[in-house]
Amino acid sequence: MTRPITAGVDGSQESLAALSWAAREAERRGLALRVVHAWRPQPQEAPEARIAGDADGQAEWVRAAVNEAVGTVTERHPDLDVSTDIVEGPAVDTLLAAAADAELLVLGSRGHGRIVGFLLGSVGQQVIAEAARPVVLVRAGDAPSAEAAGREIVVGQQGDPEDSADALRFAFETAAARGATVRVVRAWTLPPVFAYSPGSLKLLDEAGGLEPYERKSLDAAVRPWRDRFPDVPVEEHVEMGSASQVLLSVAGTAQLMVVGRRAHRTAVGARIGSVAHGMLHHADCPVAVVP
């Protein structure tokens, strides 16, 4: 079964940017676009109720707003297969169910420049942490010009080849659809035994060093994807430093940042790892989080 690209919309400028991004990506990949909106009737004292009236009036108001947003997309992409689902229910549950049936889920996220980056609400955080499929976060103001030639798909790689296989697959598939270069980034740090001993570092360097080992590890992880996508240009980037710092150092050339996600269960629910968290809060391009 062919999965659609799904966009969650709520009427905000961020979600409209996400919808536009999702439409472009669906067209590039030859996939359908599904637009999902979750809502619940508001009490009479709420601003929405004062505008739209009772539950029936609110439902009609919601439909009109979603249809207006979808109409803009269909005008720009007349050949795109677009469907709309307006669901009465909790936003998190609705979006997680939609993500399970999607190639990827696209959401909007508020941002305030490179320093603050993405400001994730509770809905976005829960969906990213628990979704079974990739989730892409897009900020208001994202435009097709950001996908211009010369801007790369940047993806983080760590551990053994299988540890980052899903993120690499997503990055290469996206690059193939866009005719873009993939920059695969592997960050490394000194083991504690070497950190405070210049003599040990010298011996390690004479023996070949840690960096050549890291480069070989990266090459082994990337090689299957080079073979599978021979037309996709690849840049391998190995740098000493924390993964978040190294990825952010190359984010300025990225049209999309791709990171893996390992969700951690806590007493208050699932939480994403530090690298995904860092990219979502500080990268100024769209970020794809791949479970």
UniProtKB/TrEMBL annotation:
Matching SUPFAM superfamilies: Adenine nucleotide alpha hydrolases-like (SSF52402)
Boundaries of every UspA domain copy: 1-139, 152-291
Family: Belongs to the universal stress protein A family.
Taxonomic lineage: Bacteria, Bacillati, Actinomycetota, Actinomycetes, Kitasatosporales
InterPro entries for this protein: Rossmann-like_a/b/a_fold, Universal_stress_UspA, UspA
Name of the protein in its database record: Universal stress protein
